[in-house]
Amino acid sequence: MFDLKKLLDDHDSHPLALIEQHINPALAKVLKILGYDVRYTRGQGAYLFDDRGQRYIDCLSAYAVFNCGRNHPTIRTALKQAMDMELPGLVKMGPHRLAGILAKQLIDLAPGDLDTVFFANSGGEGVETALKYARAATGRARLLYCDHGFHGLTLGALSVNGNADFREGFGPLLEPCTAIPFNDLDALARELAKGDVAGFIVEPIQGKGVNIPDDGYLPGAAELCRKHGALLIVDEVQTGFGRTGKMFACEHWGVEPDIMVTAKALSGGCVPVSAVLSKRWIHNKVFSSLDRCVVHSTTFGQNDLAMAAGLATLHVLREEKLVERAAAMGNRLMGRLNTLVDKYEMLHTVRGKGLMVALEFGPPKSVALKMGWSLLHKLDQSLFCQAMLIPLLTDHHILAQVAGHHMDVIKLLPTLVISEQDVDDVATAFDAVIGACHRFPGPVWEVGKRLSQQAIKRQPKPAHATMS
Q1: Is domain 73-319 classified as CATH 3.10.310.10?
Q2: Of the listed 58, 66, 235, 304, which one is catalytic?
Q3: CATH dotted code for 14-68+322-458
Q4: Which of these is catalytic: 246, 264, 353, 411?
Q5: Is 264 an active-site residue?
Q6: Predicted confidence (pLDDT) at residue 14 exceeds the cutoff of 70
């Protein structure tokens, strides 16, 4: 008899050992260096718990997957019910009942006249779908994307990924694809005017850095795309389903995309699922005849467990008013954090919408602090923030992340079920940690020194030293 608990008990040594041996040795080493090798044993709501019973406030939420919190009882019950019903699932040559219901509910929520849905398994797969749709619908090939935009790591999605760190070593990528600056309508207009662009893909708020556009940018982009016959593809993989205080982030600016990609939080954190919503004329260009009815498909799309998780997630968002809660808790969190900007010279900006929040740091004016700042940044621009995130985890039991490569930005993505007390605790913890980094030498700088030593070890040796 299979016993999952017994299997875990039989492998009760540190879980990182098997990860290091069989999955990703480099990641295992990084987690050890950073002190992120915590033995988490349980997740519930806004929290993670380790093997000692210590509670952590989860401000990472698996990169915005757990909008409804971890192991939400309604979503768990829905999945158990689906299993007990012995639903047919993946008949393929037959209708998928739950898929139709979920599609209808998503269409009812969507901005504008998006009225067809394609289900896949991940945000990256959803982006691949959107890129294919754009080419099929317009008969054009070129795709536009933004610097620092993140749309996934599969080959097509990577081709419109604006982060060089992820692209390096995987070329040649899909062509023709052109990067333009984010929040720059003039640059977009110049490229669209060439008349060969199939689609412009953009995150309404960039995940890498939590970069928020000017109020006129996304409406202007939509107008330019319409003018030049290109499709506006809005990537709501991270920003969707209440994360920013609206059901979809593009609603902050009244934008109605031609194609919208969603994923992450739709899964409830339980069964991977993505949904690509598009206008019907676009869909009809892709599935243009009876013999092309499956010209684009994916094996596990529309599977019953994923559909049940999606339906239960939408129910929780509605019934618990989590979209409205995200707006309120986000205002509370940013309000508390903004009081620290005047208090600490290295904290330059707090920005965000809803519970997608960034703290951006910058060079200090004090001579002593400048020394520490310069030392860390000469080695790796991510070290300064990481030096704060480690005591945030170890001393204050709050899990968060650096917002991207080579930037002094910490990103917070707590669950939407986070409480007022949790928000206040997060702000109080940042007050303590940022305060500590304004004492040089001090505990945060000691952490930075340890990290910098590891960075030096990681740097490649000079050519003359490797020749033997």
Answers
A1: no
A2: 235
A3: 3.90.1150.10
A4: 264
A5: yes
A6: yes
